[in-house]
């Protein structure tokens, strides 16, 4: 039989393109071409590597679709590609089912050279046609390519600025007019704008990114953004404009602690515009002393913590357009370039990802109003206002209200969280800030000149431009509410790096917040690029002796040598490998982890193999009761040798697996030998014959059980003590802090007590995730007792207490888990817990091979389970051991295409190829 196909092409860079071909009535195999982007950029411009990796997905309405071979063509022009002239690379036919991360193997591209590619695959269902995959461009990768480009700025404050503590520094505006003398073929603009930039061409903003570029330790590296502005330029006169904000670069508002908080200087920029003309000639426009600049614009102050002040009376109409009168501007100054290496940015910029309308306006007796957005969110507020010139509107942001209805501000510490807008008085004025963001649900508005309505305000939700790839819901409203709260907290704290909170004077990328949370997040968000970037931040912050900080990038100079915090580099590396199947993430981080482990062993392991150094312990353990929690300060360190030694063993085990994966055979025996000695020491030092570890704390026993540190003969007794701690001592509640909660739900479930895990997941009394919901939370709190705690450390938007809850939702309740032996969801482990407390669980995750879906529900005495396995992958299905009336149907949409007889072993396990299936059975337990 001859097969033709229909194709859906999606370039997951900064845009998408659709193509279609003739559909065959018998077989429909789609190919989705994309870039996994574990190595590449968020767009195809300025790739920092010579050998980017190419990926595609197969899909179709047939079951059991498997790739047999592929062929890739890469050409220097679209015309050559269409003519199948692969002047850059022809992979020829490759017998392989690999469709993820195939490295380009052709000629090395020159700077700014484009490469166009397409792929053709053979499957067990037939051959595809050629499918075009778009293009990529080689970036400016060498320092010498930038050396003739001058850094410009102004290394001083303006006379109206204040650079004392809580400084106010106005934004800097730059412009340059030039003439393109010929017809333009292409134009790529490369910009490094520090701390933050907004780019304009001929009077229009370029791109939809905000708060760009992503933050880094600018002493280590600075990020280049690249834009194709061909369509925005014209032959003849053109104008470039850039606004620079302060971001994480100019941080003198925090100069009361210069020993702790880094400052990198005044804002600065470097820019190159590469133009290729139709006749083949080229021209480069660069930053130099001919650029004009001013700081006397409308943005009078901008600061991540304190907000933005905007004076519309100072607006410069057409400032970035051709012909603007720049006579009052002055020549830009040459300034010292930053110390860090210049690198193409490999993760997404932030953008406005969602708009929210407020739900209520609360008038105040003094004439002010308080706006309720109905959701604790991260971003800013757009206002529509009409009034007289010089009238001032002040916007003050907070997460919650005091009992008297005023803003609760104490938990912001010294962050002012306030925007100011001064009207120009010229009719309806619409404004939103550029170089700040806030964590808020409520906004106090002073000086609003006209009668406010809900339509005068729009909340702009801002986070990294990454897709939500997971869906999860159940029949239980508490679980659903917690999941929704988790989404808002996770999304809002993606800020070019994972930060702890968006509202107070901190907003730091604490390593201890994300070791397991990042794993759960990966089911919900396509977050691989931000975590690859964060691992680079961690490596660059590592000291030459191996020490890793608590915060990376190390904006705060905290190097406490805390095992469970710094060890996040191990957890995140492991997570990325599991969820994407990308071996390179291990190769990139292996030496840094090995150096750190050697550093910790050499400095802190005693003669008995106990790792003696821990800084925080089980951070944020809940007080025994909510009455005792009132006003309690949670900033209490409880260092624990048990925790640090347990993690030492756990990380040695992971490194042994890493060594095997990347062929470091010599290291395996060393890791395993040391791990054995640490395990013996752990049992000898911390095991009590009464059947528990350490002080019989929930976290002590959890770590011992989950990390495999308990001997077989003691395991049941230790688990019984864990269960007793939950059921009796704590009356059906958890008592773990940040460390223990990472292993809680899976340990209970793996040991057969999913019912107890369900109780913890659905509790609405203190302490629990549901308690937060019960008390009005729309995000996840920093503290279990966040409604009554001392406000000095009491964020209402954190992720660290999620622990392994989201992992448990997907892997245990829904049964969507990547096989560690075949990572990246090449093989899926589908083993749901069909808990009696739930009527249904419906979940999906868009993985590297496509969407995995699991939807089980109760229909009378039956359980009906609909599953979807993506093409070119497979799954192992596990059913309860005691069932009857098993039926397995192969589906095509809502149609049954065949009834299958699974070859099920005694444990209810069988394998399925890709496709859609309906399984029904009666659970006899």
Automatic annotation (TrEMBL):
Catalysis performed (reactions): Hydrolysis of terminal non-reducing alpha-L-rhamnose residues in alpha-L-rhamnosides
Domain Alpha-L-rhamnosidase C-terminal, first and last residues per copy: 815-882
A UniProt-annotated Pfam family: Bac_rhamnosid6H
Residue ranges occupied by any Alpha-L-rhamnosidase six-hairpin glycosidase domain in the UniProt entry: 468-813
Domain Bacterial alpha-L-rhamnosidase N-terminal: 182-353
Name this protein carries in UniProt: alpha-L-rhamnosidase
Domain (Alpha-L-rhamnosidase concanavalin-like): residue spans on this chain: 366-462
């Amino acid at each position: 039989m001859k097969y033709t196909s229909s194709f859906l092409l999606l370039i997951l860079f900064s845009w998408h393109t659709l193509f279609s071909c003739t559909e065959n009535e018998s077989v429909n195999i789609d190919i989705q071409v994309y870039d996994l982007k574990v190595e590449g950029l968020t767009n195809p411009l300025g790739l920092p590597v010579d050998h980017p990796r190419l990926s595609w997905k197969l899909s179709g309405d047939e079951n059991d679709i498997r790739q047999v071979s592929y062929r890739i063509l890469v050409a220097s022009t679209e015309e050559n590609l269409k003519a199948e002239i692969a002047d850059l690379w022809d992979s020829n036919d490759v017998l392989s089912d690999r469709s993820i991360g195939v490295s380009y193997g052709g000629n090395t591209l020159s700077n700014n050279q484009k490469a166009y590619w397409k792929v053709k695959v053979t499957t067990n269902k037939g051959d595809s046609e050629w499918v075009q995959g778009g293009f990529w461009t080689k970036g400016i990768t060498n320092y010498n390519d930038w050396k003739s480009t001058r850094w410009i700025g102004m290394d001083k404050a303006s006379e109206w600025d204040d650079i004392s503590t809580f400084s106010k520094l106005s934004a800097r505006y730059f412009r340059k007019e030039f003439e393109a003398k010929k017809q333009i073929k292409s134009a790529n603009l490369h910009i490094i704008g520090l701390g933050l930039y907004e780019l304009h061409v001929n009077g229009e903003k370029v791109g939809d990114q905000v708060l760009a570029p992503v933050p880094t330790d600018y002493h280590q590296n600075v990020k280049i953004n690249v834009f194709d502005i061909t369509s925005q330029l014209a032959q003849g006169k053109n104008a470039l404009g850039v606004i620079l904000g302060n971001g994480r670069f100019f941080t003198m508002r925090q100069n009361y602690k210069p020993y702790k908080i880094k400052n990198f200087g005044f804002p600065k920029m470097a820019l190159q515009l590469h133009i290729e003309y139709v006749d083949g000639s080229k021209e480069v426009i660069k930053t130099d002393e001919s650029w004009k600049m001013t700081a006397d614009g409308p943005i009078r102050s901008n600061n991540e913590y304190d907000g933005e002040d905007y004076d519309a009376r100072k607006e410069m109409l057409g400032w970035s357009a051709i012909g603007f009168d720049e006579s009052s501007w002055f020549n830009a100054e040459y300034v010292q370039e930053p110390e860090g290496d210049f690198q193409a940015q490999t993760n997404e910029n932030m953008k406005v990802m969602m708009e929210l309308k407020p739900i209520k306006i609360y008038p105040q007796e003094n004439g002010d109003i308080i706006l309720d957005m109905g959701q604790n969110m991260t971003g800013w507020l757009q206002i529509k206002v009409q009034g007289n010139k010089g009238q001032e509107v002040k916007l003050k942001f907070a997460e919650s209200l005091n009992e008297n209805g005023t803003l609760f501000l104490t938990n912001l510490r010294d962050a002012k969280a306030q925007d100011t807008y001064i009207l120009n008085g010229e009719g309806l004025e619409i404004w939103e800030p550029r170089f700040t963001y806030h964590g808020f649900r409520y906004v106090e508005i002073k000086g609003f000149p006209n009668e406010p309505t809900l339509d005068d305000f729009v909340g702009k939700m801002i986070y990294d431009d990454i897709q939500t790839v997971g869906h999860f819901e159940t029949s239980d409203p508490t679980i659903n509410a917690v999941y929704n709260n988790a989404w808002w907290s996770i999304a809002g704290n993606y800020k070019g790096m994972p930060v702890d909170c968006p509202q107070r004077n901190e907003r730091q990328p604490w390593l201890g917040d994300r070791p397991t949370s990042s794993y759960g997040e990966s089911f919900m968000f396509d977050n691989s690029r931000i975590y690859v970037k964060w691992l680079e931040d961690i490596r660059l912050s590592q000291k030459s002796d191996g020490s890793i900080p608590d915060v990376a990038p190390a904006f705060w100079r905290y190097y406490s040598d805390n095992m469970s915090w710094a060890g996040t580099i191990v957890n995140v590396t492991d997570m990325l490998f599991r969820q994407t199947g990308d071996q390179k993430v291990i190769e990139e981080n292996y030496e840094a982890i090995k150096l750190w482990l050697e550093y910790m062993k050499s400095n802190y392991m005693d003669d008995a193999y106990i790792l003696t150094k821990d800084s925080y312990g089980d951070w944020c353990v809940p007080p025994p009761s909510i009455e005792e929690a009132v006003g309690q300060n949670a900033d209490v360190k409880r260092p624990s040798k048990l925790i640090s030694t347990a993690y030492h063993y756990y990380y040695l085990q992971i490194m042994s697996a890493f060594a095997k994966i990347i062929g470091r055979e010599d290291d395996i025996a060393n890791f395993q030998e040391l791990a054995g000695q640490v395990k013996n020491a752990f049992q000898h030092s911390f095991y009590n014959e009464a059947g528990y570890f350490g002080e019989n704390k929930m976290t002590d026993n959890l770590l011992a059980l989950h990390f495999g540190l308990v001997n077989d003969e003691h395991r049941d007794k230790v688990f019984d003590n864990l269960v007793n701690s939950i059921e009796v001592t704590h009356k059906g509640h958890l008592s773990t802090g940040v460390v223990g909660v990472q292993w809680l739900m899976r340990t209970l479930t793996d040991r057969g007590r999913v019912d107890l895990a369900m109780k913890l997941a659905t509790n609405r009394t203190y302490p629990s995730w549901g308690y937060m919901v019960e008390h009005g939370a729309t995000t996840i709190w920093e503290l279990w007792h966040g409604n009554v705690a001392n406000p000095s450390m009491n964020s209402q938007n954190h992720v660290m207490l999620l622990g392994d809850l989201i992992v448990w939702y997907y892997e245990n309740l829904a049964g969507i888990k990547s096989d560690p032996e075949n990572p990246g969801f090449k093989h899926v482990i589908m083993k749901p817990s069909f808990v009696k407390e739930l009527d249904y669980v419906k979940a999906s995750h868009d993985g590297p091979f496509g969407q995995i879906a699991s939807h089980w529900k109760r229909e009378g005495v039956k359980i009906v389970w609909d599953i979807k396995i993506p093409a070119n992958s497979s799954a192992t299905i596990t059913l309860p051991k005691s069932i009857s009336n098993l039926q397995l149907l192969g589906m095509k949409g809502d149609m049954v295409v065949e009834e299958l007889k699974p070859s099920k072993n005694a444990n209810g396990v069988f394998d399925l190829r890709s496709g859609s299936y309906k399984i029904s059975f009666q659970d006899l337990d």
